[in-house]
Amino acid sequence: MNVRKFRLLDMDNMQSSEERDEYEKDYARLIQTPAFRRLQGKSQVFGAGTGDYYRTRLTHSLEVSQIAREVARRLGKTYTFLSANQHPGLVLQPEVVEIAALAHDLGHPPFGHKGEEVLNSLLMEEHNIPYEGNAQNYRILMFLEKRAGSESGLDLTAATLLAINKYPFSLGEAGRLKGVYTSEWGAIDSLRRAWEMPIGCATLEAQLMDLCDDIAYSTHDIEDGIRAGKIQMTSVFFEDERLIRAVVQEIENDEGNAAMDWGSIDIRNKVIKVLEHYLSQWQAVYTQCDREASRARREMKARWVSRFANHVGIIDDPANGWKKITFVRDGTHDLDLHRTMEVLKKLAWVTMIQDFRVQRLQKGSEIIIRRLWESFKEHATGRYILPPDWIESYERHREKWPWERLVADYIAGMTDSYAEKLYAELYAGKSGTIYERD
Are 316 and 326 in contact (CB under 8 A)? Predict the structure, then answer.
């Protein structure tokens, strides 16, 4: 049996056409889901519907998938061990990486990271169970979405499921903030054990998807920020002490950045150098593009994506007896380039997410999610205002899934605009008609 193409529910592949490769089936099953389509209405940085220029979760996912697939192709030609089939987790198939990238943000609720933060807070405060976007991916792929002929989930191949699993841990473990819900972890863990994956290590495909997500965030989101005027391409803006301090503080406060070894360098000096270089490059590109801002933005984005993508490589990870995908120079981890990307990510964060206008929108979105939760959280009353198919699903699975998890699933699946519409129906007294379909 090919353990990479193994399916948990349809082990003999009796429920799908034999005319297509198994990963082609995964791709088709994913992109035809309502959950994938709804990404077009979910915020990336700016609210979905803010304008026809800015990225949504859908366009972001498409861009990550394009970068990841191209990098996987290049690495496949560069590292001969990838074609030796030494281990199912030490393989880089472009199709699998592409599918994982398309699916990596399915679990994000409406209103971006603020929505995730609020749902987690509500569930933890009232029921001591978490909400986490990466874990929600598996709720969607393994339960909520249904392929043709299936009662539960898309039944994707093992390779695809593990390529999405960038945090290979159970959220049932004490102290875990990211991972997989305990309800889905059993199945994921069984695949990892069948593959003999080292504990805590992600497959190369999952690692590449994760790094390409960061590449997209640190380049594409900055392009959106420049277009929106949140990032002003002037020396006054880039040399502002408040900006420099804010970026430095975000780096220092990020507990997930331990691998960057920031303590060994002067963080402030690194931030200043990256900002100076970015502005200097912009000025040169702006001139080359005949001072046309839209062309300059695209050119800057393309150059930085190329710079990061062309330095992705694979090195040994002796601490885990595994391989690591990261930025590589002369056969070792290119920490300087990795830190550069982190500075750009923090630049995007402090100039856009922390902008007071964006914070106002996020405060409004928090109110919406909290009021929707209050409306649905009690089974006795909530069951009358949830769609009938959700109630039927709850009745079928009530021994496995508590009511509050189903309510979180329902809210998390909403687009930004649908959440706003439903809030208006419940609390503003008007919006739409009873003849509209949910």
Answer: no
